[in-house]
Structure formats: structure tokens, C-alpha cells
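Session log. Operator J.P. requested a structure for one protein chain; no other inputs attached. Running the standard single-chain path with C-alpha cell output.
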Amino acid sequence: MSRTQAQLVDWNDRRGFGFARLHGGSERVFVHIKSLNPHMPRPRTGDQLELEIVAGRNGRPSAVSVDVLGPATGIKASLSPHLATAALLLILLQLGLALERIPLGLASLYVSMGALAIIAYSWDKKAARVGIWRISEIKLHSIDFCGGIIGGLLAQQMYSHKRNKPQFQKSTMVIVIMHAILLGSLGAGLF
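Structure written below.
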């Protein structure tokens, strides 16, 4: 099968499917979230896709082996709130280290727990795709709470995982606020 490029013209993120249109064509191609290649970010309307087309339900064109190439030319990409929040926490950590108010052991804890969080979110995302044993949300939050929040935020963005679950995101923001207060207080010398 040959690969071709198309633009995503309609996407329902909550339901996990949408439609793409080949360049210069008028026929719509069905795209399902499960047709995305592993580690691809969730697509957005306007994204350029590289895909293979097969006959789907009722012979209609359907996409398989989809790679998200990014926004179409002329569409400005925005900074994700997850990436911005992770960057803010990382800046607080680095400032505290530079001012010698945050112990090196605490910074090491953030790095190691952040790596563990990335591994855990990656495993859970893969497990969700193939239907095998998953890591519970409470365990993911426990890793975030114990210093893995920066890695957890990065993993949520990288794997497009748990970002559309409001209750999970509320708990994540509580953990973010707690760590921001801790790092800010340490950096300001309040402890």
C-alpha cells in the first residue's frame, strides 16, 4: 500500500474519530483513534496526516497506519497547558537549585520520579490500546504526588493520555498547585 497525505477536516476528540480529505480531492476518509501509529499525539482539526487508505465499512475509504505530521501550513500551533505547567515547575526547581535553597537530593527525586511517571503513563497508554492490565489512576497520581508531576505532565502531553478526563485533570491540578507552593516556598527561602 502506498502512503499519502491528507488534511484532517473534522475531528471529534471525545469520541475518537473524524474525517480527512486528500489534497485536491473531495472524498472524505474515515480516521479512527485506533488507526494512529503508537506514540502519535491526538490529532486536531487542520492537522496534516500521512496515512494509508483501505476499504472500510460499506467499502468507504478508511485510514490505517496514521502519522500526525502537525498543523497545516498557516495554522499556528499553541503551547499546551500541560507543557507550560511542566515548564513552570521546572523553572521553579532550577531557580531553587541555582539559589542553593533546594537540596540536590530533592532535585534528584524530581528527576527520578519524573522518569518513572513517563514510563508509567507510557505503559498505561499502550495497555489501554491493546486491552491488557492497566495502571490505576490512583497509582499514576501517587507517582505524580511523590515528585513525578513534571514527568507526568510531559507524559500526558506526549501520549495524549488522560487529558480528556475532567476528574483526573482536577486531581492533577491539585498536585501541581501543591508542588508549585512547595518549590516556590523553598526557592523563596520560607523553609
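Operator note: The mean pLDDT is 88.
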